[in-house]
Amino acid sequence: MTDTTGTDNRTSASGQGLHRTIISVDAMGGDRGPAAVVAGLAKSARKNKHIGFVLHGDGPELQKLVAKRPELSGICDIRHAEGVVTMDDKPSHIIRHGKNTSMWSAVESVKSREAEVCVSCGNTGALMALSMLRLRKLPGVSRPAIAVFWPSRNPLGFNIMLDGGADIRADEMDLLQYALMGASYARNGHGIKRPRVGLLNVGTEEHKGRGEIRAAAELIAEAAPVAEFDFVGFVEGGDLLSDRVDVIVTDGFTGNVALKTGEGTAKLVNDFLKEAFTATPLSKIAAILATTSLRRLKKRMDPRRSNGGVFLGLNGTVVKSHGSADATGISAAIKLAFDLAQSGFNEKLAARVAYAPGDAQDAPALIEKKPSGEK
Amino acid sequence: MTDTTGTDNRTSASGQGLHRTIISVDAMGGDRGPAAVVAGLAKSARKNKHIGFVLHGDGPELQKLVAKRPELSGICDIRHAEGVVTMDDKPSHIIRHGKNTSMWSAVESVKSREAEVCVSCGNTGALMALSMLRLRKLPGVSRPAIAVFWPSRNPLGFNIMLDGGADIRADEMDLLQYALMGASYARNGHGIKRPRVGLLNVGTEEHKGRGEIRAAAELIAEAAPVAEFDFVGFVEGGDLLSDRVDVIVTDGFTGNVALKTGEGTAKLVNDFLKEAFTATPLSKIAAILATTSLRRLKKRMDPRRSNGGVFLGLNGTVVKSHGSADATGISAAIKLAFDLAQSGFNEKLAARVAYAPGDAQDAPALIEKKPSGEK
Questions:
Q1: Most buried residue, A8, A20, B180, B351, by CB count within 10 Å?
Q2: Residue B6: pLDDT above 70?
Q3: What interhelical angle do A172-190 and A345-353 show, nearest 10?
């Protein structure tokens, strides 16, 4: 905040009479470096006149990159930060020694309310740790979660899964909060009026699964009518891609393994597909004829189109873009961040989780029955 | 055993001077009914002169089906069983009331040693419960596991993952046993001389993951040189499909979710591919030209080619075929069962797990150091 580089830019941006939603962007953490990030911002700025940025990272480098993009002129405030969080940095180290990093600075802009939402494609663990440290958890939330997209057969083209890896454990109360937060996110972030929520398990029969999951099923079923979502019960791994559910709730360990398994499988099929279409001269001709079809397929499975894991349960919104995101991916994450800020979703989510059963004595009208608590 | 239907067949089979490996087959549990099972047996019998079957299920129906298949003449012993285990039956119910079922009868043939291995495409939970009840766990094994195949970039075309869903929990000692059993299975069932074993986690850095997984990593690293496998350390969901590992160890909850997520993703991509190739007249022409390429892709991803989850850790070998397996899938499961019986793999596996660290005092030469036990 003491660094004044670019402050004039920002003032002039506000001075143009347009109300801009300001997004704080960590320019440094991604695999493709700040050039890809700035290209993504430019892409977003071309499409959206109501957006502005506070960009954190290597000042001189960012000045040069931004100067090349006329779309960013006057709407991009640059904050110099010496340090960069690498993918190998331990979250605990960053919390103790990371004050000079672009990631810390980017989160700080949300804490100080100069920006409404933060976007980073850096180290997920460090970003979550910093976000928890600086933004703090929402009242009533024990474990924040990362909500991720999943390509699916649903009309929107994706499902939402949480927790994608914020925490490696979750008890029944955490799973209930994930359901409440996920439903709120689906409604306010993606316009799904009455989200269908499923609880990930190894079987759809009620007698299966771990104790905390069975207990969570009871809590979520009780909360569903009050919190205005439909609980479809237990779902299995294959349902992450199905159209019978919009929000899938699971612990962060299982969620992270499932996420990476799904990504890996899609990539393997894609590689095999490429090999199949280059195997013989005839298959190469077929590939040329099928260009449009294959491009259509690629688009539907393209993780860049639905890039952005959202941290839920904090006093402020943080969007984690994929580490390998290119300009298209960054721009998708920026769009998501913008939409979330516009909808005021974090305030709505805060109101929703504040009334979880744990606080039911304070809000008897919302959850009439206490959880039966068969643990 | 008191039912003598077809006993003559079997005697005559043995009487032909060929040594046959006898496989016990539950004909009834699959989604496609006994006709698909018998078609699968016929397919196997055409390729393999050293195979014989004890077939369990509805006697009159099986007699009719087998009579239509000249390949099965004289090598298929039919055992009538009234009951059928359905996909919805609870394992606990089958254990108490399932004595009259074809599944029970099929497992019993392995217990009595008239068959060397059992194959069923019925209810996984019931099959595991019955197998544990009748065959009992191997000495030193606390939780048996299901080892499943995974299409991968490895030369063999697949990786092995366990546990695919036999149990929903696993502590560090269980995970160590899965590593020992998985390595033994890869070596003796699939000819991988020095299997590379990885432990599924949410990150490859050593500080990540649950306590029992970190403890298991130490135990497995200690056991690796003695048990003649390479421990590659932590792997992530995406590595289920990679060529840096042959055997992936995880608990049955995570394994089952990952398995179904992977299957679901492959199916979704396949469906999207079909839609892409039927979208326009040009794409339909491309699809015709690309027939061979698409067939090649399909074959590489075809779950039927590597059908068969193997139950590890019991006094006897049980192969679980996919519930929806057709003749090709059944035949693949039969081939796996045959190969396992031929290699005497269960005896080798029993010898391996008998010397887990828990028994190290009885076999100091195999595991020199006691586990450090940092739980």
A1: B180
A2: no
A3: 150
